[in-house]
Amino acid sequence: MTLDPACGSGTFLVKAIARIRQNFAQKPEAFPGAEKGLIEAILRNVVGFDINPLAVLASRTNFLIAIRDLIRHVGEIELPIYLADSVSTPSEYEDLFTSASPVARVPCAATKPPFLLVPREVGASAATVNEFTQLIEHALKVGLSADEFLTDLSQTSVSIRDRKHYVELYETMANLRDEGRDSIWARIIKNSFAPLFVGQFDIVVGNPPWVNWESLAPEYRKVSAAAWEHYALTGPLPGKRRQSSSASKTDVCILMTYVAADKYLSKGGRVGFVLPRTIFQSETGGWHFRRFVLPGGKKLAVELVEDIDALKPFRGQATNTSCVAVFKSGGTNKYPVEWRQWRPRQARQAQELTLERVKKASTIRKLLAEPISATELQSPWIVGTKATLSLLRDALGKSPYAAVVREGLNTRGANGVYFLQASLLAGRLMVTNLAREGRNERVQETTLPIEDSYIYPLLRGEDVSRFKASPKEYVLIPHSASSPTSPVVFADLPKLTREFLSEFKPILSNRKKFRNFDPAGNEWHGLYSVLTATFSPYKVVWREMAAGSGVIAAAVASHRLPLGAEKVVMPDHKLAIIPCDSEAEADYLAGFLNSNVTNLIVRSYAVATGISTHILDRVAVPRFSARNKLHKQLALLGKRARLGNLTVEEENELSFIAAELLGLSADEAGTVVKELAKM
Q1: Is 274 helix (H, G, I), strand (E, B) or coil?
Q2: What is the pLDDT of residue 92?
């Protein structure tokens, strides 16, 4: 039996039907009744759910097309594609979670609020659901009163606990009928209960929605909250991690994976889902997911990960990283896990290819994956060959710089106000806010004169390349180096600076509170994550997003304003910062972070869109010492790279020094170079 709990247009279901038909062609004797047995097997063994009515319609249509030549062999059929919420239905209708509510909510776009309140006991069994929906559909059709409907219902197996709830539901549906809002609602109720009674499946497949918790509709967040708690997919994260909120829910596909394995999978069955690779390799986003333990202590084992990201299977895919993961119910994870990396032999041409054609057009590299920390099995997975994992295991460790690394400044959605272009006009500094940067249509472009007291060179991710940093724009930061976390009192700011900020006060004061940042009061003009490290005269930065390139780091110091003053460069939140005591220390760190061994470690466990402060928990960069010859040489090479370009010999020297500082031999450093070239 095969289930797709988020079936969309039915792609996986149609493939499952094709597989059953192929089996019939090869072994027709396995299907008693010939074609009649075939279509009965399909209707019994291929099931889909989706919460979107249009998706269900498309899926049913494609399902029907796939069996159109077989329909004549049977009488009336019911397509096993249901308009149902495969995640929240257990929460609403079963005793899986404790609920004091006597009613459960069935989505209904025609009512306000958009759901029907169905007495919970209706979902006691498939029989009670069928009896209830058939009877209410009949009662509405022939025009029975609510009392007459209840009299008939009392003769069924439905146990009526509170007549009031049945009367309210019946009257709501009668009003929909009288308003001409069609009469499908009884069937919608029946569909909604389907996930409870379809049974368990040998295979659960699909491409569950990749939707971040924060992007879910508020109503659905409320409905699914109990499920997140039940599956222990929420809660604080250990240690000093960026996403430390007790409500650190992430992608809804994580929840669907756990629900599918727990509720729909038979013992020994398998789940095969298309998932974002980040849930295996993100430092924070997949932490709870990587417990791989279901309620009651039942284990969920990862059997195989097919890393298909390089094939770019989705049109318009930008930052999403795709994989196909296969899980087995009741198994225990045995590390390392098989990880197969697919790469196209040439640029993708056709949009749709069969699996056989994809195999011929791709190379498949067999790798292994295991938690990067041997003591924290929920830590991100590191991926590589057996030899690479062994080599890197000896090089992993926490850097002393992990205690001081920080993120750059964050405007909390007001880039369009604080990010500026600057120029001179008749000896005056004129600034224009980059209104479109904040994606806030209420921000209007304004050009005003301003003092240079709180204007700084702005460094953004795109301004940083390997060893190089070139600020192109400017930023207004009304904070002081002596007390950076809070803004300067508004009345103490220079006159023109106050006038500029006042132009945007309604927008700035309406920004959302975040941790210790609250712009609703007197600090409405401030920024978030302005720290001592931000004002450091020497620092090294690296890009959080560095697709296909690993770590991209550069040493930075000061930059000239249009009026000629040298000011400290200010990195934004897409850059990580290590404050340094000297130029030499910054060059040393840039050299180490750009080295082959650092990049092999980082690219083996981190996704390219999440190379943030956590890398110093994994790469044991030693603290700089001006007395250490290797440190001094690495700093010299970093400076040469910043001011010009390194020769091939100097690049090799830089990487071999970094490898030696991590305790690797010259031979192992050579292996690092070879392995990195294969990535």
Answers
A1: strand
A2: 56
Q: What is the DSSP string of 402-465?
A: GGT-EE-BB-SS-HHHHEEEEEEETTEEEEEE-GGGGT-TTPPP-EEE--STTEEEEE-GGGEE
Work out the burial of residue 375: count CB atoms within 10 Å of its CB; fewer than 13 is exposed, 13-18 middle, 19 or more buried: exposed
Is the pLDDT assigned to residue 649 strictly greater than 70?
yes
3-state secondary structure of 545: coil
pLDDT band at 406 (very low <50, low <70, confident <90, very high): very high
Q: What's the rounded mean pLDDT across residues 306-335?
A: 82
Cβ atoms of 420 and 476 within 8 Å: the answer is yes
SS3 517: strand
**Contact indicator for 193, 89 with CB cutoff of 8 Å:** yes
Render pLDDT for 113-126 as a digit per residue (tens, 0 to 9). Answer: 777 888 888 888 87
Quick one: three-class SS letters along 448-461? EECCCCCEEEEECH
> CA-CA distance, 427 to 633, in Å (whole number)?
44
Could you tell me which residues come within 8 angstroms of residue 205 by beta carbon, excluding any fewer than 6 positions away? Answer: 2, 3, 4, 12, 16, 271, 272, 273
Determine which helix (DSSP H) or strand (DSSP E) holds 163, and give its type and residue range.
helix 163-178
CA dihedral 161, 165, 171, 175 (to 10 degrees): -140
* Average pLDDT for 293-305: 92
Which parts of 450-534 are beta strand (E)? 455-459, 464-465, 468-469, 473-476
Report residue 599: phi and psi, to 5°: -70, -35
Contacts of 289 (CB under 8 A, 6+ apart): 233, 250, 254, 257, 258, 279
- Tokens representing residue 623 in the block: 């603290």
Our CA dihedral for 610, 612, 614, 619, rounded to 10 degrees, sits at 100
Residues 596/561, Cβ–Cβ less than 8 Å: no
DSSP state of 372: S
pTM for the model stands at 0.82
What percent of the chain lies above the pLDDT cut of 90?
Answer: 57
Q: Please, what are the domains in the chain?
A: 11-83 (no CATH), 94-197 (no CATH), 200-384 (3.40.50), 406-678 (no CATH)
